Amino acid sequence: MHAVELKGITKRFERVVANDDVNVEVQEGEIHAIVGENGAGKSTLMKVLYGYYQKDSGIIRIFGKEIEDMTPHKAISLGIGMVHQEFMLIPPLKVVENIILGSEPRRGIFIDEKKAKDEVSKLTQQMGFDIDLNAETGTLPVGIQQKIEILKILYRGAKILILDEPTAVLTPQEVDELFNILKNLKKTGKTVILITHKLQEVMAVSDRVTVMKTGKVVGKRLTKETSPEELAEMMVGRKVLLKVEKPPRNKGKKIVEVKELWVKDELRGIEVVKGVSFDVHEGEIVGIAGVAGNGQTELVEALSGMRKVEKGNILIDGMDMANRTPKEVRLSGVAHIPEDRKGMGLVMDYTMAENITIGRHDMAPFSKGIVMDKTYMLNKGKELAESFDIRPPEPTLEVKFFSGGNQQKIIVAREFDCKPKFLIASQPTRGLDIGAIEYVYRYLLKAREEGKAILLVSMELEEVLSLSDRLLVMFNGEIVGNFDSQQGFDISLIGNLMMQGKVF
Amino acid sequence: MEILNTTLLNQTIVAATPLILASLGGLYSERTGVVNIGLEGMMLAGAFFAVWGDYITGSPWVGVLFAVGIGMGLGLIHAVLTVTFKSDHIISGTAINIFSLGLTGYLLLVLFHTHGSTREPVTQLPYINFTALERIPVVGKFINEVFFNHTPIAYIALGLVILTWFLIYKTPLGLHMRAVGEYPEAADNMGINVNRIKYFGVIMSGALAGMAGAQLSIGVLTQFVQGMSSGRGFIALAAMIFGKWKPFGAMWASLLFGFGTALASNLQGTNVAIPNQFFLMVPFILTMVVLAGIVGKSIPPAADGKPYEKENK
Fold first, then answer.
1. Which one, A376, A387, B51, B170, has the greatest CB density within 10 A?
2. B179 contacts A91? CB cut-off 8 A
């Protein structure tokens, strides 16, 4: 029997058709993966299934019964539960309050706190979780928060669990743990729908897979009868190189030397980078791995001149650039692909040509005297659009009309065109499709071959592992691990360092 | 010091009562994510309608009901504007303040044919006394003089503080309110009707502010005076912030502001060589100090003041 049957689902957002006549069948008791690039319509489809969005047309059947006008309330009562990509937990509430929210056991007009605690702790025991139910939810690590999300769903008696990109925020150990949880749920007869764009995960845990592309279903496979390559080709519509092919490193002289760097978060008044030292040479990629919020962002901001350095040195080619302005830092040969593409990397209402000019707008050849040279800007835009394959190649188009991948290409093009000695790439593939990710990787490797020093900061462990020549692990503002690709990367050791800052 | 006598403490409670009610009102609204700076206007309208209800029926309790009613009505308007039509909370609140000022001035003319204030005194709310208490040695007199000699509304306010605490922290409705004020998407996702909770919070807010107004006009006085809320709605808002959006916190903060007010009016009568106006400033200066965040950081509900919109992909 089908736990979920979606027939001819169509969902429009103004001009965009997010789901176009989508058909998906999920068998009871299986782990069903739905894969596709960003914007393929996976999340929209699940939100329609969960009743968070109303479908424009189509039929939803749950355990064979057709459901009209799905709402989250109805979905919950039908046994559907959803773990959103962005957790739906209320940080200041206690764990137990978050779990019972909306389905509170009552005694008279009050919440029956004892019953709630008993029921929830029974559930945590069944699942083998170790969670303090009275803790303030927002203070717990993301791995635990995700377990709370799963508990929340099970508490409502869910038979069908939808997980939207559940591994995006997890460390490798937490991912393994999650997969074991999912397999256990399957054993107890639950149906799991897993939305992801990570193909290794699909192969590792699912029974069947549905592939979506631009709002449509483009393929359905049994997991054991397909391969990551086939799935990637269906997702992107062309052959994709999944493995990074990296030529041997050609290490040159030391370009960057960071010595005992301390950075403070002024708002919270605490040290967030604590005595970090490292160096980057010509022709190598140094990766920084770590769970989000361990000081990486502040380190990058200090390096690019956007944040005050408390003490320590940042030597760029021998010159101390600590506490210099971003412009001085840039002029010393540093380029920066910022993690916040829309806020820091681009001015969304400016054209591509203007965005490519920005930062160099007041110097030749972009300006003549005090006047900007529009013709030069346009020609530059055209030239870069061609060499970096920016689509559409329209320098006069405002960047907000470009896709995320092409916006990132505009930033990459600008930063490369500055001919830097040192390139900082902070989360350069965040939110990009595998097609666009492949481009970014290719550019980074090209810069490496050209002899640039590159610092790559990423929350995607897979990414730093495959691109880095050397890998630093950052935890709680400190560098707690230093690995070289020549010795091979010990993934479980790195994972431990990311989570604990130490090895068990 | 002579200033620190039972009268001063009694007056503290008198001055704090409307603040407690209105700051609780602010709490109901803001806990569900709606900023209500319309408290001031709701209080003013409450003060007027209390006098009117009292005037036409002769019963101050009908007056209180009228005050609560108009408060709820204005709360409903604020809810429709901010929740249903998602307009800016500050603009809607300001509109209510201006509207109330105009409305009461106009109705004063139409219903009482006068300007500035009502002339004929209406029946005042009763004052509760326990002279029997004075027979308890040493503390008896003190207790009676400080904690009694108040209108029932003072005790209702205290009761509402306790009730609100239970509601917010111990009932499903309270949990839903906290969830909606912090993260409406999550609440919606758990099947909670976000808008219904917000409407409840804002209308309750109006009811409490209206009752606070009644205390001003027919509790302390026996008439309506134009603009008689004179900034208390804003002070109540400051008390709520100072009290960190918690019922007892709001109450203690209100008592502190009430003490400031009582102190100011007591000092006026003494022969200190400082102009009266400076004493009258005391509660407002306290308010500014609090709002400037000098007395510790207060963290508002995360989604406070933000409209909740779905399907805005």
1. B51
2. no
Q: Which residues of A touch B311 (CB under 8 A)?
A: 13, 53-54
Instruction: Band the pLDDT of A163: cuts 50, 70, 90.
Output: very high
Determine the residue of chain A that is closest to B168 in CA distance.
A110
Q: Which of A38, A90, A95, A111 to probe by mutation at the B interface, max B CB count within 10 Å?
A: A90
Instruction: Flag if A103 and B190 touch (Cβ within 8 Å).
Output: yes
Q: H/E element holding A161?
A: strand A160-164
The residue among A403 and A481 whose pLDDT is bigger is A481
pLDDT digits (tens, 9 = 90+) for B253-276: 999 999 888 888 777 766 667 777
- CB B182 to CB A103 under 8 A? no
Q: Could you tell me the two tokens for A88?
A: 């739906």
Inter-residue contact A149 to A83 (CB < 8 Å) = yes
pLDDT of residue B87: 93
* pTM, to two decimals: 0.76
Q: Domain range holding B221?
A: 17-129+137-237
User: What percentage of chain B has pLDDT greater than the value 90?
Assistant: 65
Q: How far apart are CA B68 and CA B47, in angstroms?
A: 10
Query: Would you call A13 and B183 a contact, using CB atoms and an 8 Å cutoff?
Result: no
Predicted confidence at residue A487, as pLDDT, reads 85
Closest CB from B171, B172, B178 relative to A93: B178
Is position B279 within any domain?
Answer: no
Contacts of B170 in chain A (CB under 8 A): 110-111, 113
The answer as to whether B303 is a domain residue is no
CB pair distance less than 8 Å for A18 and B313: yes
Q: Classify domain A254-345+419-500 at the CATH topology level.
A: Rossmann fold (3.40.50)
- Number of residue pairs across A and B with CB atoms under 8 Å? 72
How many angstroms away from the CA of A163 is the closest CA of chain B?
14
Q: Does residue B116 lie within any of the structural domains?
A: yes
Cα–Cα distance, A148 to A145 (Å, whole number):
5
Closest CA to A240 of A368, A109, A432, A424: A432
Q: How many domains, in total, are found in chain B?
A: 1
Task: For A74, name the nearest residue in chain B, comparing CA atoms only.
Answer: B191
Q: How many CB atoms lie within 10 A of CB A203?
A: 16
Boundaries of every domain in chain A: 2-236, 254-345+419-500
Asked if B188's CB is within 8 angstroms of A72's CB, the reply is: yes
Nearest of A135, A101, A99, A142 to residue A118 by alpha carbon: A99
Helix (H, G, I), strand (E, B) or coil at B261: helix
Q: Return the pLDDT at B312.
A: 43
Task: Determine contact, residues B193/B276, Cβ cutoff 8 Å.
Answer: no
Establish if B162 touches chain A: CB-CB under 8 angstroms.
no
B313 has pLDDT over 60: no
The vertex-A285 CA angle with A283 and A290, nearest 5°, equals 165
Q: Is residue B273 part of a domain?
A: no
Q: Do the domains A2-236 and A254-345+419-500 sit in the same CATH topology, yes or no? A: yes
**ipTM, interface predicted TM-score of the complex:** 0.84
Closest CB from A18, A76, A92 relative to B191: A76
Pick the CATH number of A2-236 from 3.40.50.300, 3.30.565.10, 3.40.50.2300, 3.10.129.10: 3.40.50.300
Residue B165: predicted pLDDT:
97
B187 touches chain A (CB under 8 A): yes
Q: If you average pLDDT over residues A52-64, what whole number do you get? A: 92
